[in-house]
Design goal:
The chain is an alpha/beta fold and 247 residues long. The protein contains eight helices and 14 strands. It has a single domain, classed as P-loop containing nucleotide triphosphate hydrolases (Rossmann fold, 3-Layer(aba) Sandwich), CATH 3.40.50. The strands form three sheets. A ten-stranded mixed sheet has the order 6-5-4-7-8-3-9-10-11-12, sandwiched between helices. Strands 1-2 form a two-stranded antiparallel sheet. A two-stranded antiparallel ribbon has the order 13-14. β11 and β12 form a beta hairpin. 43% of the residues are buried.
Length: 247
């Protein structure tokens, strides 16, 4: 039997036929405004409630802003940080400003992948993490795309070896058909793509599981919404270019 990690996101585990296989590295790909960060933070928050410590790597936003945004959905992680169940890796400030006084895990040189991996490994071991989110992994190779696959594979070896299940947030441009970098999609175990499409004059969000090693999954494109409590996916509906269809 494949051990699965529940996302806890309403409707998502039905689409994944039970959840993400343990130790998988999943690429969460999408353009701006699709809900990637919310999805990944909700995954970590739900894990905390399931007794699974988590690490969030902040590459795109200040850690203070990340905590504030999560609290806006009712996901106040500070208590879990104090209890040693949640860790924030600051890969945004490089230790400049007051971060060095408040943040425990800081990546000072983002061009040094070895330092990045060492800080991440330390955070995982310190809290015995079971879930990791890197938001976004694109930042690590955006200026050196030729190294993208190598960086992803290095991270995958470390994370899988430590027994964690991971989400790598991947940025793509509006209308881009790929998943966020040459060869990256071949280095991960799963791909979930989030999209924002204009249909009949209205923007609609949807997702599709492109691949997921170790499990079958829905092959359909499902609509989802971002509510005040996070993402809600509708496994019983399919989004087509002409609108939403009930199954």
């Amino acid at each position: 039997m494949v051990r699965r990690v529940k996302t806890g996101i309403p409707g998502m585990d039905e689409i994944l036929h039970g959840g993400i296989p343990e130790r998988n590295v999943v690429l969460l790909s999408g353009g701006p405004g699709t809900g990637k960060t919310i999805f990944s933070q909700q995954f970590l928050w739900n894990g905390l409630h399931m007794g699974e410590p988590g690490v969030y790597v902040a590459l795109e936003e200040h850690p203070v802003q990340v905590r504030g945004n999560m609290a806006g959905f009712g996901w106040d992680v500070r208590k879990y940080e104090d209890e040693g169940l949640f860790a924030m890796v600051d890969a945004f400030t490089a230790g400049i400003g007051k971060s060095k006084e408040y943040e425990r895990y800081i990546v000072h040189d983002l061009t040094d992948v070895r330092e990045f991996v060492d800080v991440l490994r330390t955070a995982i071991k310190d809290i015995n993490a079971k879930r990791v989110v890197i938001d976004s992994v694109t930042t690590l190779y955006i200026n050196k795309p030729a190294l993208a696959r190598g960086i992803v594979m290095q991270l995958k070896r470390v994370l899988a070896g430590l027994g964690v299940t991971s989400i790598f947030v991947s940025q793509i441009s509006v209308g881009e058909r790929g998943f966020g970098g040459p060869g990256v999609e071949h280095g991960v175990d799963g791909i979930i793509r989030l999209d924002l499409d204009e249909i009949d004059g209205e923007l609609k969000r949807s997702l599709i599981v492109w691949k997921m090693r170790g499990t079958s999954h829905s092959m359909r494109r499902h609509p989802f919404e971002i509510t005040g409590e996070g993402i809600v996916v509708y496994p019983d509906k399919v989004l087509k270019r002409k609108g939403v269809v009930e199954l």
